[in-house]
Amino acid sequence: MPQYVIERDLPGAGQLTPDQLKAVSRTSGDVLDKLGPDIQWVHSYVTGDKICCIYQSTDEALIREHARQGGFPVTAIHEIKSVINPATAG
Question: What is the top-level taxon of the source organism (predicted)?
Fold first, then answer.
């Protein structure tokens, strides 16, 4: 299944409390349960004013539907073409 990076501009994201992050995670999980197995949340990175999420999904439209149902912003969606790390250098 293709993987995507989803950028979500969210001013103050880095100031969200653990309870707020838990609530966002629960909302996301509830929507994912409704949408079925064609979309999966892998993990997210929270920065000062942005959350970047890694998702697996059959298509971008399903990611946008997840965001719509969950009330999450979507600034950009990028399909991941390759993954590299220090081991890539050989």
Answer: Bacteria
Spans of all domains in the chain: 3-84
What is the dotted CATH code of the domain comprising 3-84?
3.30.70.3090
The amino acid sitting at 24 is V
Question: Are residues 36 and 19 in contact, defined by beta-carbon separation less than 8 angstroms?
Answer: no
Q: Write out the two tokens for 7.
A: 């950028």
Q: What is the pLDDT of residues 30-81, one digit of tens each?
A: 999 999 999 999 999 999 999 999 999 999 999 999 999 999 999 999 999 9
The torsion angles phi and psi of 76, rounded to 5 degrees, stand at -160, 150
pLDDT band for 90, please (50, 70, 90 cuts). confident
